[in-house]
Every structure is written in C-alpha cells, then in structure tokens.
Amino acid sequence: MRTTVLAFAALAMALGIAPVSAADTDPALLTKATALMEKDFQSRGIAKVERLKQDDVMSLCTQYRGALPADVAKRVQAEQMATIKFPADGKYMGDWKNGDKIAQSGRGATWSDKPDTVNGGGCYNCHRVSGTELSYGTIGPSLYQFGKLRGGPTEANMKYVYGKLYNSQAYVPCSNMPRFGYHGVLTEAQIKDLVALLLDPESIVNQ
Amino acid sequence: MATVSRPLAYICCTLALCAAGLSAAQDKDPTAAAIEQYRQMLADGNPAELYELRGEELWKTKRGPKNASLEQCDLGLGPGKIKGAYTQLPRYFPDTDRVEDLESRLVTCMVQLQGFDREEVTKKPFGSASYQSDLEALVAYVVSQSRGMKMAVPQEHPKEREAYQLGREIFFYRAGPYDFACATCHSEDGKRIRLQDLPNLTQKKGAQFAYTTWPAYRVSQGELRTMQWRLWDCFRQQRFPEPKYASDATIALTTFLAVNANGAEYAGPAIKR
Lengths: 207, 273
Prior knowledge:
The structure holds two protein chains of two kinds. Chain A folds into two domains: 2-81, no CATH class; 96-206, Cytochrome c-like domain (Cytochrome Bc1 Complex, Chain D, domain 2), CATH 1.10.760.10. Helix content of chain A is 43%, strand content 1%. Chain A has helices at 2-14, 27-40, 56-63, 70-81, 96-104, 123-126, 146-149, 155-166, 188-199, and one strand spanning 41-42. The radius of gyration of chain A is 19 Å and the shape is globular. The N and C termini of chain A lie far apart (58 Å). Mean pLDDT of chain A is 91; it is low at 1-23. By secondary structure, chain B is mostly helical. Chain B is built from eleven helices and eight strands. Chain B has helices at residues 2-28, 31-43, 48-60, 102-112, 118-123, 134-144, 158-172, 182-186, 204-212, 227-237, 248-260; strands spanning 91-93, 98-100, 191-193, 196-198, 216-218, 223-225, 242-243, 270-272. In chain B, the strands form three sheets. In chain B, strands 6-5-8 form a three-stranded mixed sheet. In chain B, strands 1-2 form a two-stranded antiparallel sheet. In chain B, helix 1 runs antiparallel to helix 2 and helix 3 (48-60) packs across helix 6. The longest helix of chain B has 27 residues, at 2-28. Chain A binds chain B through residues 23, 29-30, 32-34, 36-37, 39-44, 47-49, 51-54, 57-58, 61-62, 65-66, 109-112, 124-126, 134-139, 169, 176-179, 183-185, and chain B through 31, 165-166, 169-170, 172-181, 183-185, 188, 190-196, 198, 235-237, 239-244, 247-250, 252. Strand 1 (41-42) of chain A pairs antiparallel with strand 7 of chain B.
C-alpha cells in the first residue's frame, strides 16, 4: 500500500500534479461526508437541499482537490466545452456600462435572496476589473485593461470571453470561477454585457 | 441600557478617528495598512464584554423547568469546569456518544440540566437588533474563560478523528449554483474578497489566526457572533442550503478547523469589522 502511494506521488509529481495523499481520495470518506451533509442541511428560501448534489465535475474536483490527473482533465474540459451555448445571433458584445453594474453586484442565489432577485456576476469580489474601483478581490487575476492588452474585440477574443463566462471549466478544469451560463446564474444578455466590459475599447476596463 | 451606551459611544469615537487615519494611510499606499489600523483601534473597547457579563449571569442563574443553573454543566473537563474548556472543544462526550462543539454542548446542558426543550433552544440561536440570543451570551462567557490559553483540541477518540476527516471532506466539497467549496476562498495565502482578507484555513498559520479570533463582536452587525454563525453565514454566501444549528456536519467542519489551529493562543471573543 505504502509503495503504491509513493509510486503514485512520484508519478503525480512527474506529471506536474500536486501530490494527493491516499486519505484525500478515499471514496468511502467522501460518501460518508456527503450523507452527513444530506442529513444536516435543509432547504431555506431559494436555496434547496438539492443544491448539495454534485455533477461529474464538482465530484471530481472535490475528490482530486482541484488537481485532476491529465487524462481526466482533458475529458472534463471537452465535456464542459460541449455545454456552452454561444449566442444564436452571432453577436457577443452588449453594453459595457451595464456590464460594469453586473460586475459590481454580488447579489443573488443565497437563501436570503428573493426568487426574483437579479443575479450579479460578483466579478469585483475576486478580480480587479476597472482602474477606478479600488475595492476588489484577488482570488482571480486582474482584468484591468483586459481588451487593450489583447488586441480588443476580435472574433476569437469575444468568443473566448463569452465561453469562459459561460463555463470556466471548459478552459481550466476545477477553476474557482462559477460556471455562470451553465448554471443559468447569468442570462445570455448579461454575459454579452460582461464581454463588452472586458473588450469594448470604450469600456472603463480599457482606459 | 446605561451599561451599553458607553462602549458603543467609544466605538463611534474610534470609527471617527479611524476615518482620519484612513486618509493619512492612503497617501503612502495601500488600503491594507489602513484596514490594519482600523482593526487595532476596534480592539480597544470590545462590546463582547457585555455579552460575557450577561452570559455569566445566565450560567449562574437557576432557569428552565428544572430550575437549575448551568454550573454543573460538563464541557469536557468535568462538571462546572470552564477554565480552558473551549481550547479542548470539539471533543467526544460519552454521555451523548458524539463529538460536540461548545454550542452543541451548551444545548445538551440546557436540555439535560435545566429541562429546556431542544427544539425551542435551537430555534433562534442568532440574535438581532430586536432579539437577544442566550446562546450567544453563554458562548461569550465560556470562551472568555480560555483567553490566553493554548488550543489543544483532542484527537484521541476514534469519533474525534473521524469528525476531523469528515470535516475536511466538507471543506473541499464543491456544489451549488456557484460551484463553491469552503476551499474556493480559503485554501490559498494572501487572497481577498473585495478588501476582506481571507485566511488560508488549510495551513496552520491561517487556521490559527482565524480560529482563535472567533467568536467575535461584529461591528457591522452590532452582535456577538459565534463559530456556528460564522459557518452558517459562510454557507449562505457559498450558495448552499442552510446547515442545521449545532449539527454533526457543522461540528465536523469545526473540528477540522479547530485541530488545524492547535498550539495557538486563544484570543477571543475578538472584534471584527
């Protein structure tokens, strides 16, 4: 057993994956913890107990502590990419001013929110976004001057940003970022406004 | 009421001073320095003391259908022994055959010794402007009796070890419409949400700082908040369903955090923004 663990650790390190100890991947323990949560959590307001149910990606990211083995990562990425619904009208960019309001708002989807609360993107919670808002988080990378540094609203850039907002796991498996489109947290129109926020040359992000 | 007004007036005063400090600190650089200064000023004159006093009175007063005080409550070190008790919780209790945190154990004592109804006691554990929570006051009193002592949460009993392991699984469990786990925000050093620093709870240093400064008086809410509240509000923002008060799942998660904090000096109840 010990040799197996060591061999796995060595292999994992060779592949550039953070070593995961045997205890971390004990499926019996995860099953037990899941049952415990199902017993001890209850629906409140819009936050129903069904939210505890994991899809394939959530389960794998939990099990591997966010560091998927290369083959699993490749499969997950392809599956998540297939979930992205790009806009039928072929237009990716909306209104950047509206995008900044969505980026500022961290509202929505908690048990203290109403069913008709308009969800925000909560972007500033984790990212620097504009140059003027100083209250920003650092869990994600800075997005300040995102479009300016990448050649602006090219077709490829717009498609990438739209896709990333829709399903971040299609690009970085086990990314910390919510899958806003996949979960229906943000609408197509809201995602378009956020694409504009990042890529429109007029946007405060690119000043 | 007269006892309340003085510390609150003091806080208002420190906030005003702090505003002046903020503008000065911003000249040379970051918000971080100013926030640190704000915290230091807050620490001077903590209204948590008022909760401690009320908690002590509740502890010693005969109450409930059995007309008994909590002075014979066993928090793990023997009946009535509260000095240092919080530094060794959560722990396994043979009489209930489960691992209990402070809040769960207080409920157990209120039921067993005082004859209160469990449902009644746990129905509304968190206070608000219009409602005082007895549990919050009792928690403030008990934890204050561990201030300055080293965290030494036991991992002897198999159920204590299991609680730790299950708590770790819960910590890494991703779910909900935002795909969040506790780990999403609390497994890297030096991260923030907006301007709020996030402790890395997977590392000793982060876990020690966070755990030893809860429970805390939250200035923004005007309430003393307990560890159960802290987890409850984290799960709310994680977009999870609601964890039941003092449930096994919350105690397991608390055990994971508390054991990671072992060796640090307990400093609560603290004061936070």
